[in-house]
Design brief:
By secondary structure, the chain is α+β, with helices and mostly antiparallel strands. The protein has a single domain, classed as NADH Oxidase (3-Layer(aba) Sandwich), CATH 3.40.109.10. It has 7 helices and 6 strands. The strands form 2 sheets. Strands 1-2-6-5 form a 4-stranded antiparallel sheet, sandwiched between helices. It is globular. The structure holds flavin mononucleotide. The site of flavin mononucleotide has 12 residues, from helix 4 and strand 5.
Length: 177
């Protein structure tokens, strides 16, 4: 898909088709694309934990998401995104500047932008969820303490038409000097 069309067509989807299943190969292809993102000193601290099986998805929806997000993410694969803390933006354990682990969040966001766009290119839809229970996710998936758990991305096939929420104008957010 042409780039401008791709970024316009990617929209948050909050209802997924129960008749279609996302495969491990599809998630692998998406993460392979996300790996091309830039990162602080190429530290590549982004990590992905994909929940695909029906049994684990049911437990995840019940234990790790607030009810409203669990409803929206039904019938989708669930991908936890995290980063290895104390690495991006750090030299020998010391932060390089005031942003500290903010750079880990920054790098993960860059990875995740590619993740969302690659998913769309493959014909899949997504929902980023910041409202989630990080402690319950860590317990269920046994994610090590070295990783900061950030978002959960639902990946599936849309069962509703996409809406395009309004955006600010370019002039609102861009200044030239
Ligand atoms: C960091 C982040 C956290 C979000 N958390 C949630 C969430 O918990 N639940 C939800 O329904 N949408 C969530 N969203 C989706 C946003 O509401 C959505 O991206 C925004 O309204 C713009 O719509 P669009 O993605 O369709 O362009 C989140 C998006 C981002 C980037």
């Amino acid at each position: 898909m042409e780039f401008d069309a791709l970024i316009k067509e990617r929209r948050s989807i909050r209802q997924y088709d129960p008749a279609k299943t996302v495969t491990a190969d599809q998630i692998s292809a998406i993460v392979t694309a996300a790996i091309e993102a830039p990162s602080w000193k190429n530290s590549q601290t982004a990590r992905y934990h994909a929940v695909l099986s029906e049994e684990m998805r049911a437990r995840f929806l019940q234990q790790c998401l607030p009810e409203r997000n669990a409803k929206k993410a039904e019938h989708a694969a669930l991908v936890v995104t995290s980063f290895v803390k104390g690495t991006a933006g750090f030299t020998q354990g010391q932060p390089d500047n005031e942003c500290a682990d903010g750079w880990g969040f920054y790098d993960l966001g860059l990875h995740n932008a590619l993740f969302l766009l690659k998913a769309k290119e493959l014909g899949l839809d997504t929902l980023v969820m910041g409202l989630r229970d990080a402690g319950a996710i860590r317990d269920l998936l046994k994610i090590p303490e070295e990783e900061t758990i950030v978002s959960v991305i639902a990946v599936g096939y849309a069962a509703q038409p996409a809406v395009h929420p309004p955006r600010k104008s370019t002039e609102d957010i861009l200044k030239f000097y």
